[in-house]
Amino acid sequence: MVRGRWIAALVFALAVAAAFAALGQWQLERAIDSGTAVRHPSETVVPLEAAAGPGKAIRSSMVGQLVTTRGTFVPDDYLTVAGRLNNGSTGYWVIGRFTVDSADAGHEIALPVARGWAPNEKAARAAVRALSSAPAHEVTLKGRLLPTEAPAIPDPKDQDPLQLRQMASAALVNIWTDLPADAQVYEAYVVEHGDPPAGLTPIYSPPPIEQATINWLNIFYAAEWAIFAGFAVFLWYRLVKDAWERERDDALDAAEAASARPAGGEFSGDETVD
After folding, report:
1. What is the pLDDT of residues 215-254, one digit of tens each?
2. What is the DSSP-derived secondary structure letter of residue 136?
3. What pLDDT, on the 0 to 100 scale, is given for residue 140?
4. 251, 61 in Cβ contact below 8 A?
């Protein structure tokens, strides 16, 4: 390996490997640059009816969209949802049933709304009592639209089976009072923005994280160039080893041939001497 020609071959192999590595890096950069960023104008407030419809799952492009609508909160249907994080602190959501105004529907349209956060159950219950005693009146609702959560069976060991822990439309329709049989319910909920009801803290609801698609073909090419770079150095090693093995075998053959020849002046016992 330390012979001049093999050192020169190593330098050449490293140069080839560096070129392959540079090509792999270029492919990685292209994979990111050519990716398509998924951007949605979530901070532009749109009518609720344009973002989602009752009884239907919301489109992925509408998840996190700011929406607005008119309607009335039902005083008797305020509830609490336990185990909700707000800026890293665990507490309770106070949620309500919002009846959406719709002259063309001909039936009630219900929308779950998370109105605010409380640090403990006592504060959440106090807010529920205050909201339930307030008269119903039409309001303009503005908030962030999010998909409904799946209901879950509570752990009987340490969880109250009657305490909500998910914002699930499927569970709420069985809890809300006097919900008409022909009512339609959104398979989504809104986190209310603006000033929360007295005794509650605004729910932290940031915009959705922008995502980007990756060009996997470029990733594959980058991996290929990395393999080629490693193979260039391995090929140098393989050639050096083959050369060393040939020299070793030639040396062994020469040594065996030398040991097989009789030394000068010696003769075997069956030779006759005149």
Report:
1. 778 888 889 999 999 999 999 999 999 999 998 888 888 8
2. P
3. 95
4. no
What count of residues does the chain have? 274
Among 134, 164, 139, which residue's Cα sits nearest to residue 150? Answer: 164
With contact defined as beta carbons under 8 Å apart, do 141 and 51 qualify? no
pLDDT at 105: 65
Q: Which residues of 231-268 are buried (b: 16+ CB within 10 A; e: fewer)?
A: ebeeebeeebeeeeeeeeeeeeeeeeeeeeeeeeeeee
Partnered with residue 118 across adjacent β-strands are: 92
What pTM, to 2 d.p., does this model score? 0.64
pLDDT of residue 34: 58
Residue 58 and residue 52 in contact, taking contact as beta carbons nearer than 8 Å: yes
Pairing of strands 184-185, 46-47: unpaired
Contact 142, 192 (CB under 8 A): yes
Amino acid at 126: A
Q: Are strands 211-212 and 37-38 parallel, antiparallel or unpaired?
A: antiparallel
Q: Check the CA dihedral 104-105-106-112 and report its sign.
A: negative
Which residue is it, tokens 């009335």? 72
Positions of the chain with pLDDT under 50: 267, 273
Domain ranges for the chain, please list them.
1-38+210-233, 46-209
The single-letter code of the amino acid at 33 is D
* HSE-up of residue 198 (Cα within 13 Å, Cβ side): 7
For the four alpha carbons of 33, 35, 36 and 41, in that order, the dihedral sign comes to negative
- Both tokens assigned to 68: 């607005």
Residue 61: its pLDDT value, please? Answer: 85
Strands 66-73 and 46-47: parallel
In this structure, which amino acid lies at residue 114?
A
